[in-house]
Amino acid sequence: MNCLSADETVTLSAVLERLSPHLAQIKVLHKVFCTGVAEVPPATPNVVRASHLLNTLYKAIIDYDSVGHASEQAVALLFSLWTETVRPYLEIVDEWIVHGHLFDPAKEFIIQRNKDVPVNHRDFWYATYTLYSVSEMVDNEEKLNDAASGSSGGDQGSSNRQLTMVSFLKPVLKQIIMAGKSMQLLKNLHCKEAEDSERSSRDAERKSLYTLFLESVQSRLSSPEESPTDKVTERQATTRSLIKMQSIMAQHLETNDVHDPLLAINFA
Q1: How far is it, in rounded angstroms, from Cα 156 to Cα 144?
Q2: In terms of pTM, does the model score above 0.85?
Q3: How far is the first Cα of the chain from the last one, in angstroms, to the nearest whole number?
Q4: How far apart are CA 158 and CA 173, in angstroms?
Q5: CA distance 169 to 110
Q6: Conformation bin of residue 153: beta by default, left when phi > 0, alpha when psi is -120 to 50
Q7: Which of 31, 64, 119, 223 is packed most tightly, with the most Cβ within 10 A?
Q8: Nearest Cα residue to 140 out of 37, 36, 43
Q9: Parallel/antiparallel/unpaired status of strands 163-164 and 129-135
Q10: If residue 112 lies in a helix (H) or strand (E), which one and from where to where?
Q11: What angle separates helix 87-99 from helix 173-189, to the nearest 10 degrees?
């Protein structure tokens, strides 16, 4: 919004006029804020807050996208907001599957480390990590230990309870658990000094999981960029091809003594 001069009179109608192009987006943001943040009870654990907010944004993107061209700006706004909101989640996953360290001081990640079980304990594989899932129909929190297979645990509840979980992460949750636990075991076999000295150099060379995620999303959503000249050239080539095909088919019909005006019109 442009800055107002000191001698300019500010009225509600002037403010409304300046905000009118953005009112639709503000309404979308307000709706998402109310559902994903404001309406969540104060005593709700952080892990549930984070999952609920990410699910709210993700569902809103899908809902508005289904409307079509009319909600294109709303989808773009929500998608940019979702990619930024999901960053801490992916950074936690990155640290765990690359370095074997589940770092989540705010306890927002759906998987938590049981510090009572050290890495060299015989029950490490079965009892080290806990998957938090909370039923929206039940007030109390449920902790489901992930089994040796690294299953998400969310499907083990009764069918009439909807578990709060980051929906987009659920299909790969088993692989994340397996990779994180395996990497921690592998890291425990190496010398601590060598690991610390090599870690910074490796991190400088590789792309973060969040960066790879953004690149993957961009490549899936955007088509290859074409210059206007390339588009015109391709259109001309297609037109020439169609004209040539029409000529060949006309000759073919004449050779076979087929005189069907409707067929000729369709080919044309």
Answers
A1: 9
A2: no
A3: 54
A4: 20
A5: 10
A6: left
A7: 64
A8: 43
A9: antiparallel
A10: strand 111-113
A11: 40
Cα separation, 158 vs 139, whole angstroms: 15
pLDDT (tens, 9 = 90+) of the chain, 268 residues, equals 455 566 677 788 888 888 888 888 889 999 999 999 998 898 888 888 998 999 999 999 999 888 877 788 888 899 999 999 999 999 999 999 998 889 998 889 988 888 888 888 888 888 888 887 654 443 444 443 433 334 333 333 433 334 467 888 888 888 999 999 888 888 887 655 555 556 666 666 788 899 998 888 888 876 555 444 454 565 666 666 666 666 666 665 565 565 666 666 665 5
Q: Would you tell me how many other CB atoms lie within 10 Å of the CB of residue 152?
A: 24
Pairing of the two strands 163-164 and 142-145: unpaired
H or E element in which residue 132 lies = strand 129-135
